[in-house]
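# step 3/5: fold
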Amino acid sequence: MSALLDQDWRAQALCAKFDPNLFFAPGAVEHKEAKRVCRECPVRMECLTYAMNTPVDHGIWGGMTERERRRHRRQRTQLLLGA
């Protein structure tokens, strides 16, 4: 819940200087470029934490696609359950 309330990190997000469509485009070329921006972003981890905890089902957040985040959530759940 605190991730929803504390979003001050967004003011420092590098993606705010780019066209939002870059981070929500379906193509691999756009994903690659969006991830490049994320790698340079000073608040990448805050962004990824937000997307993982919310959960956000679309777009590049914290350098991960929606598919990558789903896979990461499944792996995290399996580790927590000891499977």
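# step 4/5: annotate
The two ends are 27 Å apart (CA to CA).
# step 5/5: archive (pending)
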